[in-house]
Structure to design on (198 residues):
């Protein structure tokens, strides 16, 4: 019993393994999976019917959100991107994003819109938030990069009234994740091959 508990991978080991797996996908596979996931996302009512959605810009082998963002724009839906809060460390703001938006890179070297307070939307005005992750398991538990940004954002999602939807490659699924009290499981995760719901 003790042996099996000791042999369970840590959160950091899972992050390393899954990020490596994700980065190992060929450019062709990435394009194919991005198209499949986009089609699945656009068929899901909380995304298809949303007026205002927060999406993330993919990096480090994440499932490419560009086809989804372009499709949302074509459908006349408003897209918002996460921006690191300048004064409240560990928190995110969501800023309107259009093809004309001026971009910058944050301290994590992730592209984000230049902060303009006029373009910030409060969480309770968002309909849906597309959530990135490093890994997920069969119960909807999500493992992020370790900064807790999305855990804080999702903390009271039901009260805010938006729907969180995970967006990931199939290869990011693991059997089970060690969870902490602050981890927020997701009600829905979209992968190229299926829609997971809990």
């Amino acid at each position: 019993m003790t042996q099996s508990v000791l042999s369970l991978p840590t959160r950091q080991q899972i992050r390393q393994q899954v990020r490596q797996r994700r980065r190992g996908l060929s450019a062709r596979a990435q394009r194919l999976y991005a198209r499949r996931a986009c089609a699945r996302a656009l068929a899901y009512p909380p995304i298809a019917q949303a007026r205002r959605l927060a999406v993330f810009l993919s990096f480090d082998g994440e499932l490419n959100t560009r086809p989804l963002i372009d499709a949302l724009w074509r459908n006349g839906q408003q897209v918002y991107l996460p921006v690191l809060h300048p004064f409240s460390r560990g928190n995110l703001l969501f800023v309107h994003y259009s093809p004309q938006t001026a971009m910058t890179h944050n301290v994590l070297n992730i592209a984000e819109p230049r902060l303009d307070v006029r373009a910030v939307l409060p969480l309770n005005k968002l309909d849906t938030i597309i959530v990135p992750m490093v890994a997920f398991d069969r119960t909807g538990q999500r493992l992020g990069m370790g900064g807790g940004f999305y855990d804080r954002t999702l903390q009271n999602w039901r009260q805010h009234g938006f729907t969180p939807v995970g967006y990931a490659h199939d290869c990011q699924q693991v059997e089970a994740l060690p969870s902490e009290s602050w981890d927020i499981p997701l009600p829905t995760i979209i992968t190229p091959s299926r829609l997971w719901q809990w």
